[in-house]
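Exercise: predict the structure of this protein bound to NAP.
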Amino acid sequence: MKAIITGASSGLGADMARVLSKMGYDLIITARREDRLNALKEELKTNVTVIPADLGTEEGCYNFIKKIENEDFDLAINNAGFGLFGEFSSLETQKELNMIDLNIKSVHILTKHFVRYFESRGKGNILNVASSAGLMPGGPLMATYYATKAYVVSLSRGIYEELRKKKSKVKISVLCPGPVDTEFNSVAGVSFSLKGLGSYKTAEYAIKKTLSGKLIIIPGVSIKFAYILNRLAPTKLALKIAYKIQNKKGDA
Ligand SMILES: NC(=O)c1ccc[n+]([C@@H]2O[C@H](COP(=O)([O-])OP(=O)(O)OC[C@H]3O[C@@H](n4cnc5c(N)ncnc54)[C@H](OP(=O)(O)O)[C@@H]3O)[C@@H](O)[C@H]2O)c1
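Solution:
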């Protein structure tokens, strides 16, 4: 058994590597910080291949795909991503475009590669890491981040149905967590207004549900509840509540 994990140098990606390694999976792990990846490799008991890559560029994504060309794997996790906090009008456009490149473009390029690879193999699991942000009608003060995650949710849902219709043994899942204690908030420039879930527990839950073929994975009762409430609330009310919650994060 072998799995590929992007964004494995910290947070959820590193913990998914720990969980999978404990289950006996060999791993291919990638991110930009090679020292962190090598430290994780040292920590794990199964075989780990480290491939440093910047997935924030098309070239970086295609180079990474070339490097895994001869690899045989069963599970692929698109986890690398980051957020930016601030009013849309004040956030730097280039930083947002970099986020769109990583959160959308790289996930798109790699998901297509993984779907084609697994279809040629007849089976396999893909896990795309989105966010509860991707299930909401919009995210004031993190508008672009929420929009990137909505793309990941929508893309994954569409592919899920195409695969289901074909009775394919290729499965796709999308992880939609609320706050998780990782380096995410320091990168995004926020503090959590809700208590974050543990990263390892979230990773364990995500892997279990992915391997069972679940489409939308929402860890934690409070976020499941928030998702249901959001679906029932009128859009403008949901946006008002979202603004209040987001605004508290800015006190970082
Ligand atoms: N933590 C939360 O509250 C939360 C909630 C919902 C969803 N998520 C999602 O969960 C995923 C993992 O985030 P996290 O919470 O674990 O945060 P994290 O600790 O900051 O991890 C982000 C990972 O992405 C990698 N990455 C960033 N830019 C990259 C690039 N250009 N090329 C390749 N890798 C890159 C980072 O590695 P390098 O810096 O070494 O490249 C790191 O390994 C993200 O998609 C995030 O949006 C997080």
